[in-house]
Design goal:
2 copies of one chain form a homodimer.
Chain A: H1 10-17, H2 21-29, H3 36-49, H4 55-62, E1 67-72, H5 78-93, E2 97-102, H6 107-116, E3 124-128, H7 134-142, E4 147-150, E5 160-164, H8 170-181, E6 187-192, H9 201-210, E7 220-223, H10 227-240, E8 246-249, H11 252-264, E9 274-276, H12 282-286, E10 293-295, H13 298-313, E11 321-324, E12 327-329
Parallel strand pairs in A: 1-2, 1-3, 3-4, 4-5, 5-11, 6-7, 6-8, 8-9
Antiparallel strand pairs in A: 10-12
Helix pairs in contact in A: 1-2, 1-3, 5-13, 10-11
The first copy, chain A, binds a DNA duplex through helix 2 and helix 4.
Chain lengths: 334, 334
DNA sequence: TCATTTTGAGTTAGCGTTAACCCAGAAAAT
DNA sequence: ATTTTCTGGGTTAACGCTAACTCAAAATGA
């Protein structure tokens, strides 16, 4: 059996079925008035010729690609993968395909992606945890027809958003408060570079002060949201500040990196050092000791974002917000 | 600033620049003969009008989409994510975009994806660890112009492949051998449903017998390649067979699920039960005790597959194989 | 019986690009 | 001085599909 050389087109089907192209098109779309006989007949020919509509041609005239893009800083981060799963599942049901755009924690690459992702490629874009500043991000997304951001606020006319229910810095402050209540007095913090869980350190310190928790700017570090960065940062932070009895990390990967660094320095967890993460990835519950962290329903963050995007893609440009809850899951690392 | 209503087309640029459309097209592609003056001028107009080529129109005439699809059974499995990262990185450099197709460990969905992914959508497809039988898979990929499979063999005329260097069942037998050498005598096995690491149990038992290792069909179970499935399966297997002093799992997620089940049944690892996984995902090295497993370079599996696919996309349909090595990483779970 | 509506199609005109071919003027070769 | 070659473009015709309009025949109503 030799490979089919030419793909059948609408015209081929029409000719073979003895009808006009529009009739075939109508059968495919289920629109217009077609007699049952004709419909049946055309369907048979379509099957016989293994006809598949040409997406490019269709897009050219309808201006719809039935594709959306998911822009993410790191596809290997399980947090994003679960969100992506929700997005993919939702759009699959709606007949859309998802294009993946991975910036690899590289802001320049994220810019290039958003710039390249022209509206002739996708009907809409979900931008997940952008690492760009507003000044960089906003001009790039102004050109897109439909945008939804996850973990990022946006001027209302530009797109809808899915964010946490809580104000910025909530997780860090709540974590600090909990640690203080369990007797910790010198609390370090590993901040993330530009993400929703990154924290304005001034505000953070101010909040801690108002809770009578000790504050020391050199206890606070910043790193990329990866395991390796957490490990490297934790190593330095813990070596330089052996007085710390707790560390809060911006997400689980970083927390687990810090935990590994702590263990290597002979610290017992949680006796010598308590650690709190964020995101509640699977690994958080599987390590020893299991990691205290914040849980949010990542899959449904994905479906919420997808639903908001679909609305915009279909022309309803009303601004919408969906919020998810962050719940502190207390495990044995604290 | 109001949203731009109409996107500029080639014709707009041509009119504004006072040249023909072909001249603009040539400037964009850097082909044909264009004077420097004209080139500069056209470039300015392109920038001024923020012209971006319409992909659908281009695709319609060139028959190239500059997109490839990555078909994967479970996007939340870190093993696949790292491969995807390699694929994405490679194709990004080559000017291609990657479409994600996630079958969610559902063979019917995988079929639907492969069927829907017509060549008018993508220039090629990487099928990663297909869960379909040959009878199901082959007819589906026959229709595609360019195919590469990962962890799956293929009739040579259909596509290139990236697989392990070792024969089927190698990992399981090697693991069993190692366990036997370290004194384990009753070795359980949790097989995966249809994947490269799934094993023909008859062959497996035969190999073990030839090594004088005890064999017992009821020590061998099969499950989906997820943590939860591993946990559930491990729970049953270990409860029914307390005599087991080692378990080999098809991949790390399953191994970690089994490990959790073992710990919950009060077993000490590795004293009471040794566990071996596969894939060496990050989590494997982070749990306590760290998991003995097989390591392969997942990122480069991705780039190898991408490279092979690009070759086919560009018209070179020679069959190629790339192989990766599986190395046993001995950690404290054994 | 004749006017009106409904049914079941067909026709026309692009959508925005690029491939393939054409061509006038200038420069170079004979 | 004439022919040839090169330079710097332009023209035309698809690619495969759908939106919008048209229209004959059949069914319905007065």
């Amino acid at each position: 059996m030799t490979r089919k050389l030419q793909k059948a087109t609408l015209a081929d089907v029409a000719r073979e079925a003895g009808v006009s192209m529009m009739t075939v098109s109508r059968v495919i779309h289920g629109t217009g008035r077609i007699s049952d006989d004709t419909r049946q007949h055309v369907r048979q020919i379509i099957e016989k010729l293994e006809y598949r509509p040409n997406r490019a041609a269709r897009t050219l005239v309808t201006k719809r690609t039935n594709m959306i893009a998911f822009v993410v800083p790191d596809i290997t981060n399980p947090y994003f993968t679960e969100i992506l799963q929700g997005v993919e599942e939702f759009f699959w049901r709606e007949g859309y395909n998802v294009m993946l755009a991975n910036s690899n924690e590289n802001p320049e690459r994220e810019k290039a992606l958003l710039d390249q992702l022209e509206s002739t490629m996708v009907d809409g874009v979900i931008v997940c945890a952008s690492r760009l500043s507003d000044d960089e991000l906003i001009p790039l997304i102004e050109k897109h027809a439909a945008i939804v951001t996850v973990n990022r606020n946006l001027p209302h006319h530009l797109g809808s958003v899915v964010t946490t229910l809580h104000p910025r810095g909530y997780r860090a402050v709540l974590a600090a408060k909990y640690l203080y209540e369990t007797g910790r007095r010198r609390i370090g913090y590993v901040n993330l570079v530009r993400s929703i869980s990154s924290v304005n350190l001034e505000m953070f310190m101010h909040e801690l002060e108002s809770l009578n928790i000790a504050v020391n700017p050199s206890w606070y570090a910043t790193c990329k949201p990866t395991w390796q960065a957490g490990y490297d940062t934790g190593k330095v932070l813990l070596a330089e500040h052996p007085e710390l009895d707790a560390v809060i990390a911006g997400n689980d990967l970083v927390a687990l990196g810090v935990m590994r660094a702590a263990v290597e320095q002979g610290l017992r967890i949680p006796q010598d050092l308590a650690i709190i993460g964020g995101d509640d990835i699977l690994m958080a519950s599987q390590v020893t000791p299991p990691l205290t962290t914040f849980r949010s329903d990542k899959y449904s963050i994905g479906t919420m974002a997808a639903e908001l995007l679909l609305r915009r893609v279909e022309g309803d440009l009303t601004y919408c917000e969906h919020h998810y809850d962050d719940v502190l899951i207390i495990r044995e690392s604290t």
